[in-house]
Write a structure and sequence with these properties.
single chain; alpha/beta; Aminopeptidase; Alpha-Beta Plaits; 11 helices; 18 strands; hydrolase
Length: 436
């Protein structure tokens, strides 16, 4: 009996000791974030004011490369055109990859912030404003902050950091470009990959889930070919506008009658282009859109249904075969359950268990999925950027929603948001590489 009592006391003492060590580590991470924040805020505002679109992120990449070299990372630039890879060796151990994105969107910012972007570029042959309306600037500041924190706490972990800055996430092309340029052959292959993304929730919170986190996305273009003529004599024509309009409605039966209703899938037609004036029936109509899904079998079923519907619509009008172009996008982001088991307790300890929420699968898409499809177990986490009281007010019936990613009014509150990104990234890496 006495031996069991001593064993119980020993176990309690060990638990208390582990708890004290965890608290001390969390305090050290928070202290590093506080110490680095003024410089990180300046970095964030500079990047925010000078956004660059996909595969043109030369200034942004150079700025991050300089930051990482100053921390002692070995940096390789121009990976996947404008991407960079930064490696930090800290003894024998596994490699953990942490990704951020470099690119902004071809759109006008309307936040009214004192450091708002007024940058312009040429996008698709037209002049356009450019803005970090998806929050990649927040991610970059947190990415640098996490690197600073981990270097400062290198006595608490062992292994290799592989921090990558990826181009062209917004057009879901940058991850594949980096892989094609030797990301996992020229550099160490990571055991785990981590990424964070800002969203519309409350700052200080993070969301993730095992399994599907974001959808697969593919693009399509269909050219319906007809026979043009005068609007007063439709019988002498084959009207491609009527064909395209029929396709827009008929293709939705693929969703409602062919897809398992328990599984996610959506076909969206976002562009319909035909004709020049009202009294001429054109000789072709062009549709463009996207297909989104989680499961590979649903993805293939939607693609097959889209092709079949387009061919049948043309055949019903006695028209030539349509030209169908599928633009492969990216697979679904799938979070690895084993990675979550290894980092979840550390993230909860860092933020508080009530701040770590179970995410719902998102219907948006992300090319972070490319790394998992290369066989790297991955975890993608969303964190909030707005004051909790604003999030609460916006959730009430009839209230206007808060601006979300890609809105011209999307304006994260920088300080809590960037620090949250640092904490969840650092806690995850320390859980994966930390010394016993």
């Amino acid at each position: 009996m006495l031996r069991h009592r001593f064993a119980g006391l020993w176990l309690a003492a060990c638990t208390a000791c582990a708890g004290a060590q965890t608290a001390a580590l969390n305090s050290a991470v928070a202290g590093q974030a506080d110490h680095a924040y003024p410089a990180l805020e300046a970095l964030y505002q500079d990047i925010h004011s000078h956004p660059e679109i996909a595969f043109e992120e030369t200034r942004t990449a150079a700025r991050l490369a300089a930051e990482m070299r100053a921390l002692g990372f070995t940096v390789t630039e121009h990976v996947g055109k404008t991407g960079l890879v930064a490696i930090y060796e800290n003894g024998a151990g596994p490699t953990v990859m942490v990704r951020t994105e470099l690119d902004a969107l071809p759109m006008e910012e309307k936040t009214g912030l004192p450091y708002a972007s007024r940058a312009k570029t040429i996008s698709n042959g037209r002049e356009s404003f450019v803005a970090h309306s998806c929050g990649h600037d927040v991610h970059m500041a947190a990415w640098v902050g996490a690197a600073r924190t981990l270097v400062a706490l290198k006595d608490r972990w062992q292994g290799r950091l592989m921090f990558i800055a990826q181009p062209a996430e917004e057009i879901v092309a940058g991850a594949q470009a980096m892989v094609a340029d030797g990301l996992f052959t020229r550099f160490p292959r990571p055991e785990v990959a981590i990424a964070i993304h800002s969203g519309g929730g409350a700052y200080g919170t993070v969301q993730f889930r095992a399994g599907p986190a974001m959808s697969a996305a593919d693009g399509f273009e269909i050219v319906f070919k007809g026979r043009g003529g005068h609007g007063s004599a439709p019988h002498a024509t084959i009207d491609p506008v009527a064909m395209a309009a029929r396709f827009v409605t008929d293709v939705q039966t693929v969703i409602s009658r062919e897809k398992d209703p328990r599984e996610f899938g959506v076909i969206t037609v976002g562009a319909f282009q035909a004709g020049t004036v009202g009294n001429i029936i054109p000789d072709q109509a062009v549709l463009r859109g996207t297909i989104r899904s989680y499961l590979p079998e649903v993805r293939e079923g939607l693609l097959a249904g889209l092709r079949r519907t387009a061919h049948h619509v043309a055949a019903a009008s006695g028209a030539p075969e349509p030209e169908i172009t599928i633009v492969p996008g990216t697979g679904a982001v799938m979070n690895d359950e084993g990675v979550i088991r290894r980092v979840e307790a550390a993230v909860k300890s860092s933020l508080g268990a009530d701040k770590v929420l179970l995410a719902k699968p998102s219907t948006a898409s992300e090319d972070f999925s490319v790394y998992a499809l290369q066989g790297v177990p991955s975890l993608f986490m969303h964190f909030g950027v707005y004051p909790p009281e604003r999030v609460e007010a916006a959730s009430k019936p009839g209230a206007a929603p808060l601006p979300f990613n890609h809105s011209p009014q999307f304006a994260p509150v920088a300080e809590p948001s960037i620090k949250t990104g640092i904490k969840i990234t650092s806690a995850s890496v320390l859980a994966l590489l930390g010394k016993p």
